[in-house]
Amino acid sequence: MADKILAGEKKVKRHGFSVRVVHWTVAVSTFLLIFSGIGQLPVYRRYMLDRLPGLAWTSDFSVTLAIHYWAAVLLILAVTYHLVYHGLRRDRGILPRRGDVRQSVRIIMAMLGQGEEPENDKYLAEQRLAYAFIGFSLLLLIVTGLVKVLKNLPGVDLGADIIFWVTALHNAAMVLLMLGIAAHLAAFLFKENRYLLPGMFTGKVDLDYVRRRHQLWYRRLAQKGR
Ligand code: HEM
Ligand code: HEM
Questions:
Q1: Residue 33, φ and ψ in degrees, nearest 5
Q2: Contact at 8 Å (CB) between 205 and 12?
Q3: Ligand 2 binding pocket includes 39 (Cβ within 6 Å)
Q4: Probe ligand 1: pick from 79, 126, 184, 190, max atoms within 8 Å of CB?
Q5: 211 part of a folded domain
Q6: What is the pLDDT of residues 185-223, one digit of tens each?
Q7: Ligand 2 centre from 150 Cα, in Å?
Q8: 101 shares a domain with 183
Q9: CATH code of the domain covering residue 196
Q10: Is the CA virtual torsion 34, 40, 43, 48 positive or negative?
Q11: Is there a single domain that holds both residue 85 and residue 154?
Q12: Total structural domains in the chain?
């Protein structure tokens, strides 16, 4: 694990380069997939987005489908790399644990000024839940998306029932994912969570913040440093 205390800089190394590349590849490909997927529904002609200067392509099915396919390739590459990399290294820090729902309620209440926050590990309980929720939605989108690719191949006929259910699941998973992303971004409305933002850009977060809030992680890092 690359995590370590950088005492001279008063920072803690939280995320390595590859974690940051995976995060931003998933974020960019997801936004492209949502935008191009909604374009296929097709919504942009109805709401006249395609009449705005430079946006005529948004209602062209062949363009939105090509964007959808290329962004899907990016997403699948990033997700596969993420699973293999952390699987081989047996990194389990971000997976949900027993009692995470109760702990998340305590963390949110504490941020609203009610009660004390529990001692946190590298990830807060609510982040472990967010990871599982977003991860599940993405995997469901990938599996149902691959079946839809199969359906588009010449000579493949999956039957109307299967196509109906796969499309319904693909769309439902998109709604779940959008809720997950909204909650993920809303978390940064709380000042206390904003200390995590630099970590996804530079890999480092403030040492005092880690000492104050991620006590379990801090103690492990301090022990490792000795
Ligand atoms: C502008 C958009 C985004 C920003 C500013 C952002 C920021 C961040 C930051 C700072 C972290 C690290 C928190 C930590 O160090 O513990 C993080 C983690 C994460 N991000 Fe994002 N993110 C964005 C978009 C997305 C999108 C689109 C997805 C998914 C499709 C996503 C999925 C995740 C997941 C699963 C984690 C790990 C769990 C968690 O911390 O909730 N992010 N993000
Ligand atoms: C963030 C991830 C994704 C989102 C939000 C998303 C969203 C959508 C939406 C809204 C549609 C249009 C409605 C429909 O036909 O179901 C669609 C269609 C489709 N998606 Fe996705 N999708 C995602 C990922 C994927 C992936 C990973 C693949 C491929 C592996 C994929 C393949 C397809 C295909 C083939 C279609 C149908 C195009 C057609 O009408 O022939 N999608 N997607």
A1: -65, -40
A2: yes
A3: no
A4: 184
A5: no
A6: 999 999 999 999 999 999 999 999 999 999 999 999 999
A7: 12
A8: yes
A9: 1.20.950.20
A10: positive
A11: no
A12: 2
